[in-house]
Amino acid sequence: MWQIFECPRCRKRTIPLGRRLFLGPRGSVVCSGCGGVVGLPPYVRYIFLSMLMVMILIHQLTGSNVLVAAAYLLMMGLYLHQVPLIPK
Ligand SMILES: [Zn+2]
Prior knowledge:
Elements: E1 4-6, E2 13-16, H1 17-21, E3 28-30, E4 37-39, H2 44-62, H3 65-82, E5 86-87
Antiparallel strand pairs: 1-2, 3-4, 4-5
Zinc ion is lined by residues 7, 9-10, 12, 14, 31, 33-34, 36.
């Protein structure tokens, strides 16, 4: 589960999963390799919003917290693999 993400500036794997997970649309991380500032593309706020709406919808339809948690994990996995880090 533990993963280190590649810095978009120097291409070294310096961004820990923990920092990436708690990075919001306005947040940034300083790369320990090159000292560059990296962050997320501005459209992630819509992805977060869609994820929240999907989880609310699943809860309304099924009332199951287990399904909501499963959907959350699935969407976080997709999010971490599909949304790139960008230089800020
Ligand atoms: Zn770097």
